[in-house]
Design goal:
By secondary structure, the protein is α+β, with helices and mostly antiparallel strands. It has helices at residues 14-27, 50-66, 85-97; strands spanning 2-8, 32-38. It is built from three helices and two strands, in the order E-H-E-H-H. The N and C termini lie close together (11 Å).
Length: 98
């Protein structure tokens, strides 16, 4: 199985970069993981404004053009549903069978 993690922007905080690196190191013996960072839209628009919405559309377009054909997409969003680790593993396992 090949997993591509697409992230908008760079992870700037060293402790977060270290934690992400540790998780990637744990995953790589079991599957192929690629991390690709997508450039953030420029500007400091306040959340919920038209400029903020436009920036999200622009970033979304960059994400979509970065996806190889045939990839299945899962969006990880802090405001969305949060499956347990076991539930997420089951979802990935089902995808591997497809």
């Amino acid at each position: 199985m090949h997993i591509m993690l697409l992230a908008v922007g760079r992870m700037r905080e060293p402790s977060l970069r270290g934690a992400a690196g540790e998780y990637l190191a744990r995953l790589r013996p079991y599957l192929t993981v690629t991390v690709r960072e997508i450039a953030e839209s420029r500007g400091n628009a306040a959340p919920g404004t038209a400029a903020s919405s436009a920036a999200m559309v622009e970033e979304g377009s960059r994400i979509l053009t970065s996806l190889p054909a045939g990839y299945r997409v899962f969006v990880l969003d802090p405001g969305g549903d949060m499956p347990t680790s076991e539930e997420f593993a089951r979802i990935l396992g089902e995808e591997e069978i497809r």
